[in-house]
Give the backbone structure.
Amino acid sequence: MVVDRSVEALNEACRSRGIRLTGQRKAISEVMARAQDHPSATDIHELVTRKHPRISLATVYRTLSVLRDAGIVEEHRFGEGRCHYELADGPHHDHLIDAETGQIVEFTDPEIERLQHAIAERLGYRLTGHKLELYGVRAGDADQG
Amino acid sequence: MVVDRSVEALNEACRSRGIRLTGQRKAISEVMARAQDHPSATDIHELVTRKHPRISLATVYRTLSVLRDAGIVEEHRFGEGRCHYELADGPHHDHLIDAETGQIVEFTDPEIERLQHAIAERLGYRLTGHKLELYGVRAGDADQG
DNA sequence: ACCTCAGTTGCGAATTGTTCGCAGCTGGTG
DNA sequence: CACCAGCTGCGAACAATTCGCAACTGAGGT
């Protein structure tokens, strides 16, 4: 799923798009590159403070917006209030959220992608984006009945 | 898509669940019954004020929560910040949001429902809920090139 | 190495959407 | 018709995100 997670690749992606490389941005890229989950802005802020104790949450938000607009990170709004972020460095995928633990599982399904386009077309629209989230509990777990 | 939209049916649904029927709640039910779109809490508040000029936005939120928990209305979080509400009085459907106008089109697709279950199963989960939103622009409109 | 300045940052305050605390009110039951 | 659990209005509290502004800093040119 991950094509290239090196910080240098992210920095290069920024340079190529004319995004100035500051210490804060490099630190955020580093955190994003390491992240195995889908951290929120405050999660990221907390992690980045290890390297940049005085970095502001606003800067984290601003940087994430810049990276989002550049197509380098993806922003997700799962269920509740806050946004979650992940690198957009692999092929498209959707998410299944464990309703009990909040754990997020990534998956792809070409069939469902195709269907979404077909549905939009059927309704007279050209698909420009979509959001598919599945919520579930681990099969065979205690809460079955 | 709509099975029964009469205010009396909603009131009865409340009574049968032990939800006390106040003037405010009846007015909110009335607004929801009439709504052809997917109004936000403030939309609903604004409409309800016609009948109850002193109703508080907090009451609207509280009532919507009560109705949501009772399974009488559904709460959606499309793209941006605020929640949108609709009666849960028909069969399940998903939404396509016009990326330009914000207009919401409802649709159902048994195939996609089936696929979602299949995917969850494949990942070792039992599907308990899902969210599918398509974003698109009207095909053949100006912004094609 | 140094200058320059547009772009970036930190701070705290503003915004937006939603919820809470509490004193007063009210539906529906006896 | 009285009672009281549950409901309401109000304004304040909250949470996530954005903004305004003065100070700072990368990276290109010299």
